[in-house]
Amino acid sequence: MIKAILTDIEGTTSKISFVHEVLFPYARQHLSTFIYEHQQDPMVTEQLEAVKAHIGHANASLSTLIDTLEHWIETDQKITPLKALQGMIWKHGYESKEFTGHVYPDTFEQLTQWNKNGIALYVYSSGSVAAQKLIFGYSDFGDMTPLFNDYFDTKVGLKQDPKSYKNISESTPYAANEILFLSDVVAELDAAEEAGMQTYQLIRESQQKSRHPNANSFERIVFQ
Question: By residue range, what is the domain housing residue 58?
């Protein structure tokens, strides 16, 4: 019996294009100015030190770090300090109402219904937890964050690694087989299944169907 749902964001609850056409360009445009203006802020300093550690250059200049981060954005790297800094930049965009977080209408309606039915809801995305809370906190449907029990990002592991899903399961009150993982990416579904979770593939756009159960909207997801 499913007692909890763990959902991906990009391509699952929200359009892939929102991230690539709105969020990434916004972060790229504002990255340099943001870092120069906030380089002394402890949260920013922590992430810049993490970038230095990642590239193995403890004395890297600020311009080198910015160039590295911009390259990571352009090549869509799933690197934790980049995601954290992007989240800080996006926060300004959301708060200034330059954009809202895209969420499919069926996602909002079904998550609300599952929450009312007592199903625990969790999020797992390669974007930072802060970024996840922003997209749902400033969504097209207002603040959706009260629907969710917790959020997970790459700090628990990569999304195609079964151990990541074991780590998530162990962080909840539920056994792995009581959790249903939703994603549009087959490799992620395979990893979750290997960890013992139930799975459902979202076919939002032109994804190839797989052996996992699938639906083209949250409303068509069926489970016991």
Answer: 19-95
